[in-house]
Amino acid sequence: MKKRLFLSLVFILVLSRLFSAEKFRDYNETTAFLKTLGSNFIVKKIDSVSYKNTRYPIYKITYNQLKDKKGKKYLVFSGVHGNEPAPVYAVRDFIISLNKQEIVRKDLQIDFVLIVNPYGFEFNQRYNGANLDINRDMTKCETQEAKILTENFNPKDYDKFFDFHEANSKGFFLYCYGLKNRSLAKKIHEELKNNKVVLTMNTRTTFLR
User: Fold this and answer.
1) Higher-pLDDT residue of 199, 120
2) 178-192 pLDDT, tens per residue?
3) Are 43 and 61 in contact (CB under 8 A)?
4) How many CB atoms lie within 10 A of CB 132?
5) For residues 117 and 80, is the Cβ–Cβ distance under 8 A?
6) b/e string for 63-101 if b means 16 or more Cβ within 10 A?
7) What is the mean pLDDT of residues 96-103?
8) How many Cβ atoms sit within 10 Å of the Cβ of residue 149?
9) What is d(CA 38, CA 100) in angstroms, rounded to the nearest whole number?
């Protein structure tokens, strides 16, 4: 009886591992559009991460690279948590829309990292291939991804930084780090309301000091 129970548990464990290893999305397919971007963009492979004999290139996508230090620079991350794909597709659509039009703000450069967590994105899990939360690792830098980001991006080089996530809610909500960004956050909130974007329980912007 004990032997049967043990074998049953092993069988269930194997099945659960096989199920968890199922791919939900394809990283290379999702980033293939980068090859079609025009002269207003510069796409650079800054490094790669490796899990289970698979290497995933990490791209820095620069829109309207400034020739001098004049102007503003924004940094945009998405796909930090692999089970939050909505921001990835939204940012991808935004990049595609920028590619179809002339540059309006010639004094503004935007750098994107479309998918910070490629393994998590493919397998629809919050964590990376080592089961670590990249979002909680930006100070210790124990993950491959956090090391790449900190080595290639200095927050002091940017005027604004946006990190897009997804939550189990029926509407949009906004967290803002630092009171100095209060006016920008309020403008974003007003723009959302003007465009009839559903806000979570009519929430207001939350400022984190």
Assistant:
1) 120
2) 666 778 777 887 887
3) yes
4) 19
5) yes
6) bbeeeeeeeebebbbbbbbbebbebbeebbeebeebeee
7) 97
8) 23
9) 9
Among 31, 59, 32, residue whose Cα is nearest residue 46: 59
**Amino acid symbol at 150:** T
Nearest to 88 by CA among 121, 120, 119, 61: 121
Q: Six-digit token pair at 208?
A: 């984190």
Amino acid at 13: L
| Alpha-carbon separation of residue 2 from 5, 10, 12 (angstroms) | 5, 12, 15
Tokens of 176: 């803002």
Query: 16 CB contacts (<8 Å, ≥6 apart)?
Result: none
Least confident of 85-99, 100-114, 136-150: 136-150
